[in-house]
Design goal:
This is 23S rRNA (Cytosine(1962)-C(5))-methyltransferase RlmI. The protein is 28% helix and 30% strand. The chain is α/β, with parallel strands linked by helices. A seven-stranded mixed sheet has the order 16-15-14-17-18-20-19, with helices on both faces.
């Protein structure tokens, strides 16, 4: 008999709705001795088969479903089928505009815990679940076959791996790559990505559409790009004809790469300025100095790591939005974002509104943004939708 987990009576409802997570509290018992990441069948207490999943004995998410299809074997063919389907979706939606996109978005592509980003001929993988790590060699073999000539690099260097009983790992897995960062293009813009030391897998591919959107507001304007990282929003704004762009980031190395990105694009010298500073402190300095801007971008890193940190994160979001609203010229545009999945869009809007209230500035929402289409959200997995943005006008 195969290893299996038995779901408590009444706790199988989410599985019947095809949600891929099984929490420890929903499990009545485990039959057999499945290893970390091993494949298990999932049954009700009455003996009805529900799914096939990857077992994770150390995590509160005790199992992640690979498939709800009876008889579906988890093997090389399974991973090839899922990755091919994911790539076909991107070919239709994204590939005509860029050579850098998310190939696999975890649960939303039926591959829990697996993220694969493509930067030209480089594939960067994050394997964040026990099941993903269990099948890592198979995954790399499939990628090597489906994307011949690509260099495959792993960036599973994030804290969440510890919750799965896994160590952080990073390094080359297949192929040969030059040491230099790779240059990508999106919407006609050239950008350099450092896949080895950059944030996430190297770049924020999910903000591609929002970066493009800033161009409709930037011509002839002064633009403040906060948490600028390697300068994406600022490059787009300058190419659209912004009069002045100020990139602010705490990382000097990120700003150095932003300067390099500027050199790759036809931008008039002197348009972009670079400030190495803590954004919270710099915004206060701008307020004290009476500085103002026509367009302000707030694209901070994730403030919410857990439900326990939600209140503290809301205070942070409120503070930066209050300060930004104070710096906005009449008829100005504020583009403000949150990539914290635990922060709902409703709460984010409330926090922004509270910040505007404290700043005594009235803003109107004229548009909303979300993650680019290569970061799809499966209809049965709402947690896949995490990035939300508001475009507000004074």
């Amino acid at each position: 008999m195969s290893d299996r987990i038995i779901i408590k009576a009444g706790r199988e409802k989410s599985l019947r709705r095809r949600h891929p997570w099984i929490f420890s509290g929903a499990i009545a018992k485990v039959q057999g001795k499945p290893n970390l990441g091993a494949t298990v069948d999932v049954y009700t207490e009455s003996g009805e088969w529900l799914a096939v999943a990857a077992y994770s004995p150390h995590s509160q998410i005790r199992a992640r479903v690979w498939s709800f299809t009876p008889g579906r074997h988890i093997n090389r063919e399974f991973f090839a089928d899922r990755i091919i389907a994911a790539q076909r979706l991107r070919e239709a939606e994204v590939c005509p505009h860029t050579n850098a996109y998310r190939v696999v978005a975890g649960e939303s592509d039926g591959l829990p815990g697996i993220t694969i980003d493509r930067y030209d001929n480089i594939l960067v993988c994050q394997l964040l679940s026990a099941g993903a790590a269990y099948w890592e060699e198979t995954i790399y073999d499939v990628l090597e076959e489906l994307f011949p000539g690509s260099f495959i690099y792993e960036r599973s260097d994030v804290d969440v791996r510890s919750k799965e009983g896994l160590k952080k790992v990073q390094g080359p897995r297949r192929g040969t790559m030059h040491v230099e960062p790779v240059t990508i293009h999106e919407n006609g813009v050239q950008l350099t990505v450092d896949v080895m030391t950059g944030h996430k897998t190297g770049y924020y591919l999910d903000q591609r559409d929002a970066r493009h959107k800033i161009q409709q507001y930037a011509k002839g304007k002064t633009v403040l790009n906060c948490f600028s990282y390697t300068g994406g929003f600022g490059i787009y704004a300058a190419l659209a004809g912004a009069h002045r762009v100020v990139n602010v980031d705490i990382s000097e190395s990120a700003l150095d790469l932003a300067r390099h990105n500027e050199s790759l694009n036809p931008i008039r010298p002197g348009v972009i300025e670079y400030l190495q500073a803590d954004v919270f402190e710099q915004l206060r300095t701008f307020v004290e100095e009476g500085e103002t801007f026509d367009v302000i971008v707030l694209d901070p890193p994730k403030f919410v790591d857990s439900k326990a940190s939600l209140n503290r994160a809301c205070r942070g979001y409120k503070d930066i939005n209050r300060l930004a609203a104070s710096l906005l010229n009449p008829d100005g545009i504020l583009m403000t974002f949150s990539c914290s999945g635990l922060l709902s869009s409703e709460l984010f809007q409330k926090v922004v509104a509270d910040g505007c209230l404290d700043a005594k500035v009235d803003l109107k929402i004229i548009d909303r943004t979300q993650q680019a289409p290569d970061h799809p959200v499966h209809v049965h997995y709402p947690e896949g939708w995490y990035l939300k943005g508001l475009v507000l006008k004074r």
